[in-house]
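Researcher: Sequence recovery benchmark, item below. Answer with residues only.
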């Protein structure tokens, strides 16, 4: 006991956070549930978990019956909705009923906006559940993750197919969707389609910025004011600097990052006109949030337009705040659909409270009170929406609202970003990974290793290289448990076991170079090829492949084809997927991992590339040249030179030039180039030139 008291005193001096001490002491002496059960938030969480499991079992039983008698009008849609809820609620991805359902879905043709969007939800839920299932598989006493955070292989391919269908189904130029690909639109179909686009963004599937521009323009134009200007107070998902002052002490959560604005409430009706109501206003708000994220990821969101979108989002939040009872209280039609729409806004917007009201806690309490004795909330559709709310299904994969306790050793360091926070189950809270590893370096206490395992396991997969420097620091010449753990953890996060410190240091340096190239949008095929060929680490190669896609580096296709020699099926599938996305050409993919089968695939790709590489490289160069004309930072002389080069390309540039005219904005130089190449003067619109694409 004396030793524990000294340890706890040292812990308190370093972290200066009594709450951490309470939970950590509990983890050493008593079960955390006994300490945390006194917390009303934790008690509610336990009730939610029990309700979710009861609801999952009830829906699972109904779902098995549904497979034998699918809904006739929307077979894909209802099956996908139920699947999504089951997977989010904890049904394993390898469950035979889940596998049977996906086989049935794969045989169905894509049709109807609701259905295709729900299929995307199910595919994403399936992949994410697979990650969670894999993360809980123990190997050698440590937790390992073997799957990419972003969907890969056949799942990604089907996602892309669904996204392409949705993009084709939209009313072009208006950013809205109807029931299918026959025109017309309404807000309900539109919100499902846009949430499908959010799945694409989360899985790093490229979507043109014009799509999000159309959505934002449309949603802003259709806002209906409803009330007088009022003060809106939003409490956002807490970030690390909102809990700690410069001296590491807890401070008030009322920070400038929690918006307080005077705004006029506004909402959306079901169709173009009418009075706003709950589900459609929440849908419009989430649509704007997705559009803003899509523009940001495409580096197409100007400060002025961001202020316009934010103002529209604040207006919808004010309406939601004024009408929160409509979302929470059962009555009227479509209650479960409406409360699910509220969840989308809260989690996509990282909003914890509307004017001091904790929407999730209030909504969860209502749903618990409405649950039937057998675990359902009525028909399977209602049960699905209830489960999706309770499991917070729309929450982005790498963001999460905090549980009741926030555990961190930060001292107000602004360089520590939200991505550094990682959930540790034994503490029922988030901690700063860097600060935790720094503390482990200081005390080198093996009692911290169970928590350290969870830090490594739960850290965002696509950023695990960030942990290499602190882990190297923990690996000393002393063969103690901390050094052994650090060495093993380096092998886990890099996929390269029993390497030297120099090897891991070099790997980190290369990873930083690639990250810098991605952030700066530097286009250096020769440089990236050198890095790619000098590393054997799959995590770094995956990052480089995404970079090659981002720069449209088709000239590196030959190098990528060489990677089929790596005898790992997941990696080979990634190579095949990258090649298909890069070249828009497909070759047969083996179902297994026999080297002879993959050798045939490699040979087919190589033969095709030898025949088509000159044409593809020329096409990409032309595309870059045409897009260069659009750049706003060109001086007049440079722009004239680029225009001259485009004209010199001649006929091969026509398709790219005409495609540019489909954008919401383009430059007159694109018209000048078309006129010079064709010798015709047709006009300024896409419709004037579109026949040249035939």
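Model:
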């Amino acid at each position: 006991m004396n030793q524990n008291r000294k340890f706890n005193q040292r812990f308190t001096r370093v972290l200066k956070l009594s709450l951490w001490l309470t939970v950590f002491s509990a983890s050493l002496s008593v079960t955390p549930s006994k300490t945390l059960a006194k917390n009303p938030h934790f008690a509610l969480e336990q009730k939610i978990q029990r309700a979710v499991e009861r609801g999952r079992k009830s829906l699972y039983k109904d779902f098995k019956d549904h497979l034998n008698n699918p809904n006739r009008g929307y077979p894909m849609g209802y099956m996908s909705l139920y699947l999504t809820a089951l997977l989010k609620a904890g049904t394993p991805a390898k469950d035979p009923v889940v596998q049977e359902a996906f086989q049935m879905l794969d045989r169905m043709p894509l049709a109807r906006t609701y259905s295709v969007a729900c299929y995307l939800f199910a595919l994403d839920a399936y992949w994410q559940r697979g990650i969670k299932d894999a993360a809980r598989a123990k190997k050698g006493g440590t937790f390992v993750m073997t799957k990419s955070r972003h969907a890969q292989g056949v799942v990604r391919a089907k996602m892309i197919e669904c996204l392409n269908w949705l993009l084709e189904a939209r009313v072009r130029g208006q950013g809205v969707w109807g029931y299918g690909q026959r025109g017309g639109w309404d807000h309900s179909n539109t919100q499902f389609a846009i949430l499908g686009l959010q799945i694409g963004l989360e899985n790093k599937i490229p979507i043109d910025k014009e799509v999000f521009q159309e959505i934002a323009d449309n949603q802003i134009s259709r806002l209906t004011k409803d009330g007088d200007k009022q003060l809106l107070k939003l409490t956002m998902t807490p970030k690390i600097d909102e809990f700690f002052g410069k001296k590491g002490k807890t401070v008030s959560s009322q920070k400038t990052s929690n918006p307080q604005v005077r705004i006029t409430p506004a909402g959306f009706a079901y169709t173009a006109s009418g009075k706003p109501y709950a589900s459609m206003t929440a849908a419009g708000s989430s649509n704007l949030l997705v559009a803003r994220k899509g523009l940001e990821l495409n580096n197409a969101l100007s400060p002025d337009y961001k202020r316009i979108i934010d103002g529209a989002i604040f207006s919808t939040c004010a309406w939601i705040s004024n009408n929160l009872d409509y979302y929470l209280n059962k009555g009227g039609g479509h209650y479960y659909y409406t409360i699910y729409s509220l969840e989308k806004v809260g989690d996509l917007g990282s909003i914890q409270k509307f004017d001091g009201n904790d929407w999730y806690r209030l909504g969860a309490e209502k749903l618990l009170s409405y649950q039937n004795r057998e675990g359902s909330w009525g028909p399977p559709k209602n049960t699905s929406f209830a489960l999706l709310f309770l499991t917070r299904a729309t929450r982005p994969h790498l963001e999460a609202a905090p549980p009741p306790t926030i555990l961190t050793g930060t001292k107000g360091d602004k360089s520590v970003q939200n991505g550094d926070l990682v959930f540790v189950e034994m503490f029922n809270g988030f901690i700063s990974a860097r600060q935790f590893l720094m503390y482990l370096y200081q005390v080198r206490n093996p009692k911290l290793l169970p928590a350290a395992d969870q830090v490594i396991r739960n850290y965002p997969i696509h950023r695990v290289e960030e942990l290499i420097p602190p882990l190297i620091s923990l690996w000393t010449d002393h063969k103690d448990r901390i050094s052994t753990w650090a060495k093993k953890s380096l092998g886990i996060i890099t996929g390269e076991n029993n390497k030297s410190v120099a090897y891991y240091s070099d790997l980190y340096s290369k990873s930083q170079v690639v990250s810098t190239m991605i952030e700066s949008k530097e286009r250096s095929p020769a440089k990236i090829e050198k890095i790619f060929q000098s590393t054997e680490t799959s995590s770094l190669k995956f990052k480089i492949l995404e970079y090659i896609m981002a720069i449209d580096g088709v000239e590196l296709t030959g190098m990528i084809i060489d990677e089929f020699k790596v005898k790992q099926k997941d990696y080979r599938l990634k190579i095949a997927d990258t090649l298909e996305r890069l070249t828009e050409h497909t070759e047969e993919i083996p179902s297994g991992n026999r080297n002879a089968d993959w050798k045939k695939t490699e040979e087919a790709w190589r033969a095709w590339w030898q025949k088509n590489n000159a044409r593809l490289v020329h096409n990409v160069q032309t595309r870059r040249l045409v897009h260069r004309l659009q750049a706003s930072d060109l001086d007049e002389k440079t722009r004239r030179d680029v225009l001259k080069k485009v004209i010199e390309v001649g006929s091969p540039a026509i398709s790219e030039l005409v495609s540019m005219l489909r954008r919401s904005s383009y430059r007159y130089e694109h018209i000048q180039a078309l006129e010079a190449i064709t010798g015709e003067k047709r006009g300024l619109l896409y419709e004037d030139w579109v026949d040249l694409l035939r």
